[in-house]
Design goal:
The chain is built from eight helices and seven strands, in the order βαβαβαβαβαβαααβ. By secondary structure, it is an alpha/beta fold. The protein has a seven-stranded parallel sheet, sandwiched between helices. β4, α4 and β5 form a beta-alpha-beta unit. α1 packs across α8, α3 runs parallel beside α4 and α4 packs parallel to α5.
C-alpha cells in the first residue's frame, strides 16, 4: 500500500466492524496516513488480528471487542478509544450485516437484528463519540451505507429500511452537531467484492456476470475504492461537506434502463 500523505497524523480513528473487508481496508489506510486506529468487532480475535496487522506497518492500533448493536457496547468501544489514545477524532460506522428474504417470510427477529446492526449501531456509536469529539473541538463521522439507501431491492425489506434510515440519521446528526464542529457524511457503495457478497450470492440468486452487466462501469467496486472515498470524506479537503451521501457505485443508481 503506497503512502499518499499524512492527512491524519495523530488523529484517533475508530472503525467498527474492522476485522475484514471494507472495514479493515479503511482502518489500514487511515493508519498509513498517520492515524492511531481502534479496530472493532464482536469477535475479539478478529479485532485483535486487525490491530496487529496495522501495528506491523509501524502504526499505532488497539482492538476493542464490543457489540455495537447496544448502547452498552457502543459506550464500551468509545471508552476504550479514549482510554487508549485520549479521545476520538473520526468514527467510521462500518459494521453491518446483510438480510435477504421475501418480506412475507422474513423472521421478525431477523428484522430486529438487521435494524439493530445497520441503524441503531451507528446511532449508538455516534452518540457515544459525541462528547469526546465536542471536547476536542470537532470531528468527523462517516456512516457506511449502500446503494439500497437510494433504491429498493427485492428481498431486502430490513436491509433497505435500515440503509434508508441511515440517510436520515446522517442528515439529522449533521444538523444537530454542526455547532460542535462535527461533520457527518455517508458513503454508499454498490456491489463490492467481499466475503459478504460471496455469501449473498448463495441466497439472493445473482452471480458476478449479472452484477457486471447491470453496472454501467461493467465491474464490481473494490474495497480500496470505498476506503479512498471514506478518507476523502474525513479529510480537510471535504471541510465544507456535511449531511450528504457519497455514492460509490459505478453508475448503478443513475442507471434506470432495463
Amino acid at each position: 500500500m503506497e503512502h499518499s500523505g499524512q492527512r491524519f497524523t495523530d488523529k484517533v480513528v475508530v472503525v467498527t466492524g474492522s476485522g475484514g473487508g471494507i472495514g479493515l481496508e479503511v482502518a489500514m489506510r487511515f493508519a498509513v496516513e498517520g492515524a492511531h486506529v481502534v479496530t472493532n468487532g464482536r469477535n475479539e480475535e478478529r479485532a485483535a488480528a486487525a490491530a496487529a496487522q496495522i501495528r506491523a506497518t509501524g502504526a499505532q492500533a488497539t482492538a476493542v471487542a464490543a457489540d455495537v448493536r447496544t448502547w452498552a457496547g457502543a459506550s464500551q468501544l468509545l471508552d476504550g478509544a479514549v482510554k487508549a489514545f485520549g479521545g476520538v477524532d473520526i468514527l467510521v460506522n462500518n459494521a453491518g450485516i446483510s438480510m435477504i428474504a421475501r418480506s412475507d417470510e422474513l423472521d421478525p427477529e431477523e428484522w430486529e437484528r438487521a435494524i439493530a446492526t445497520n441503524l441503531s449501531g451507528p446511532f449508538f456509536c455516534s452518540r457515544a463519540a459525541h462528547p469526546s469529539m465536542k471536547a476536542r473541538g470537532g470531528g468527523v463521522i462517516v456512516n457506511i451505507g449502500s446503494v439500497t439507501a437510494h433504491v429498493g431491492f427485492p428481498m431486502r425489506a430490513a436491509y433497505c429500511s435500515a440503509k434508508h434510515g441511515l440517510v436520515g440519521l446522517t442528515k439529522v446528526l449533521a444538523l444537530d452537531w454542526v455547532d460542535d464542529g462535527i461533520r457527518v457524511l455517508q458513503v454508499d457503495p454498490a456491489y463490492i467484492k467481499t466475503p459478504l457478497d460471496v455469501g449473498d450470492q448463495e441466497t439472493a440468486g445473482y452471480d458476478d456476470a449479472s452484477i457486471e452487466a447491470r453496472t454501467p462501469m461493467g465491474r464490481f467496486g473494490t474495497v480500496a475504492e470505498v476506503a479512498q472515498t471514506v478518507l476523502l470524506a474525513a479529510s480537510p479537503e471535504a471541510s465544507y461537506m456535511t449531511g450528504s451521501c457519497l455514492v460509490v457505485d459505478g453508475g448503478w443508481v443513475a442507471y434506470g434502463y432495463l
